[in-house]
Specification:
- By secondary structure, this protein is an alpha/beta fold.
- The protein has two domains: 6-16 and 101-234, 3-Layer(aba) Sandwich (Rossmann fold), CATH 3.40.50; 19-99, DNA polymerase, domain 1.
- Helices cover 50% and strands 11% of the residues.
- It is built from ten helices and six strands.
- It has a six-stranded parallel sheet with strand order 3-2-1-4-5-6, with helices on both faces.
- Strand 2, helix 6 and strand 3 form a beta-alpha-beta unit.
- Helix 8 crosses helix 9 (186-196).
């Protein structure tokens, strides 16, 4: 059996349902802004917000400000603009406090892998504090090797550039064949690590991403399947 030393994970839509959470949080934010005095139908505001996010990216920090600029001053007439924006921000973060959690089985598997003395880490695309906050909220930091947390914003290399994965291998001092990577986006999480010789696992959890030309080594639809693969194909004692 291949000697496996580490398992690295993507975060968004791999360890937690980020896409579904974001949809809920944005709706709750828009409803709060309308309740705070924004004069526009919720569905219209939500549609405009989705356009703002598409144009400025999900990592932009002033979505709600841009949203009000697009809706015009008549949409918050007689209301303090800052209070309308603050209502949206508060509702978004309240949703984060209540709803953001790991997929079923993540905590149990991470605990087992740590007991099995595998190095656990993440290679994730996104802003430094935003991605780090997710790990804290998911309560996964205690399982991770502190030298195996790779956030693109900290490194200056984004997915799908294979250099991001090569950086992780170099910092961990491991050969590609010793490291498994698990992610939901084949173009970002399968093709790049496989091009380096890493073991690539597609987390196909009802993914919105189509398969890419490069096939993964394994495909899973839940963390019990990953546990079985680790045990049967790589001799990990779980």
């Amino acid at each position: 059996m291949p000697a496996l030393s580490a398992v690295l994970f993507d975060i968004d839509d791999t360890l937690c349902a980020t896409t579904e959470f974001a949809k809920l949080a944005r709706r709750n934010a828009v409803e709060a802004m309308v309740e705070a005095g924004l004069k526009a139908p919720v569905e219209d505001v939500l549609s405009e917000l989705e356009e703002v996010i598409a144009e400025f990216s999900s990592n932009y920090e002033h979505h709600f400000d841009k949203l009000l600029l697009r809706l015009g001053p008549q949409a918050f007439e007689y209301r303090n603009r800052a209070l309308v924006v603050a209502a949206g921000i508060a509702a978004y973060h309240d949703t984060k406090f209540r709803k953001l959690g790991p997929y079923p089985g993540v905590q149990k598997l991470f605990a087992e892998l740590k007991r099995a003395r595998l190095r656990l880490g993440v290679v994730t695309h996104g802003l430094e504090v935003k991605q780090a906050e997710k790990l804290v909220r998911l309560d996964l930091v205690k399982y991770l090797d502190p030298e195996a947390i790779f956030i693109s914003d900290q490194i200056g290399i984004n997915k799908p550039n294979p250099k991001l994965y090569a950086h992780a291998l170099r910092k961990m001092g491991l050969a590609p064949q010793q490291v498994m990577y698990v992610g939901d986006n084949p173009a970002h999480d399968v093709a790049p690590p496989k091009s380096l010789g890493m073991i690539a696992v597609w987390a196909d959890f009802g993914s919105k991403h189509a398969p890419c030309e490069i096939a993964p080594d394994h495909t899973i639809r839940g963390f019990d399947e990953l546990r079985a693969i680790l045990r049967e194909h790589y001799g990990v004692k779980l």
